[in-house]
Amino acid sequence: MCRSDVKQAVLAKNDGLAAELRADLARQGVSVVNLLSSPGSGKTELLARVLARAVEREVPVAALTADLATENDAVRLARSGAPVQQVLTDGLCHLEARQVRARLDGWLPADTSVLFVENVGNLVCPAAYDLGESMRIVLMAVTEGEDKPLKYPTAFGSAHLVVITKTDLAEPAGFDESAFRAHVHRVNPGVEIVRSCARTGDGVGTLLDRALAARDGTLHRPPLAPHPHGHHHPAPAPAV
């Protein structure tokens, strides 16, 4: 079996487990929000703010956070008052559906309505793995460069929502938001782009509202959304 065949077999197995997990959680009234970004995008601090806002609003949420090592992010997120668990990936640069299910078994509170999953900081491997999510959010800090959607079209092309983080640094970073938005819409036409800042709280309420709306199936349909049988289309080549 060639390398590409092995990869497809691994992805197919993951997709099957993800479909089962999504169906099981749906029966429990739980929707999953998968958060993808590069390292250093600020997604942990922003998620902490979202969880705290949910607790304030008495919305029953929970979170899984993944890293190769340390439980630092779980400690940070738990300060929100929401139930949190850490997943250590044992060197894997992404989460897989089997790891999510294993961590949820016997832990997920019965009244949970939204489970946030903070994936490993990486825009390559995690984009290929369905975690049984109802919604995929891709985040990018203003310090990362406007052309990132063109460099990582699979991640941005599979997003139900795109979030700009650290907007308080946009001016000193020389961030060209118009160019970024144009690049996002080149690979994912029509996707909503939300501005956020964990420091000021900008966008926190919007993110929570969008996650709650996902429970009702109110979602943008990205071009690289998984098929009912699991796989994604290949990423389109960005126009030049």
Give keywords.
single chain; 240 residues; alpha/beta; 7-stranded parallel sheet; 7 strands; 37% helix; globular; Ni/Fe hydrogenase formation protein; hydrolase; nucleotide-binding; nickel
Summarize the entry for a quick read:
Keywords: GTP-binding, Hydrolase, Metal-binding, Nickel, Nucleotide-binding, Zinc. Belongs to the SIMIBI class G3E GTPase family. HypB/HupM subfamily. The chain has 240 residues and is α/β, with parallel strands linked by helices.
Describe the structure.
The protein has nine helices and seven strands. With 240 residues, it is of the alpha/beta class. Mean pLDDT is 91; it is low at 227-240. Helix 2 (43-56) crosses helix 9 (204-214). The radius of gyration is 17 Å and the shape is globular. This is Ni/Fe hydrogenase formation protein. Belongs to the SIMIBI class G3E GTPase family. HypB/HupM subfamily. Residues 218-240 are annotated as: Disordered.
